[in-house]
Please model this.
Amino acid sequence: MKNIPIWQYDESKHPGEDFDIEAEIYDDKVRKFRDIRKENEELLSILNLQPDQIVLEIGAGTGEFALAAAKQCLKAIAVDTSFGMLKLAENKARSMNIENIEFIQSGFLTYDCKEPVDVAVSLMSLHYLPDFWKQIALFRFSKMTKKGATLLIKDSVYSFDIANYVEFFNCGLSRMASSVGTDSADWAASHIKEEHSTLNWIMEGMIKRAGFRIEKYDYMLGMYATYLCTKVP
Ligand SMILES: C[S@@+](CC[C@H](N)C(=O)[O-])C[C@H]1O[C@@H](n2cnc3c(N)ncnc32)[C@H](O)[C@@H]1O
Model:
């Protein structure tokens, strides 16, 4: 990881879990409430990748999306701040004989792209940054992408009625505890308390200010969002 100015947010010390420690158990943990294979199929069908395209994913984690994308494009670049998560992703690539993928330990605020990419992706990762730094990350995506490029963001973004936040969180967490277990509900509670999920209208504004047009969006369960965007000239 490169040296940063003293005023810059240190993305290697983000809130929430330590992914170097969590790496080995991460896939099993998220499979309790996410069907990753189905999610990736849906995202890839929205993206309709072309064989000559370069895809950049920041916050790539254990590489599930980047590896699936690599099968459909020229090259995938998987960036993450966690060495442990990247190591796991790299091992998966080796066992799957996928060679057109690069793994880079860096982050939204520090990764320097060597060449502009066609498609930029961030899945369940941007919320580790406070809003000001999210905006910087989105500006950096704009700099790292080609004219007319696609940006795909899926993350925890709140679209529920804020007037009912107490009921919303209490009901959601107790439903989660009874459907997938108290460990997952505790994980979600610490996410709400410590991480930086933002509001849908803030996220929309930040995406637009960074120079992207939102082509499609989907707000799910009041707390997840997917944005498919195009870079505008
Ligand atoms: C919840 S996981 C999501 C992983 C994967 N994208 C998924 O959808 O399952 C969040 C990932 O973001 C990474 N991360 C957190 N802050 C980051 C940053 N500023 N830049 C790049 N990666 C970051 C973490 O190391 C972790 O691997």
Summary: DSSP finds eight helices and eight strands in the chain.
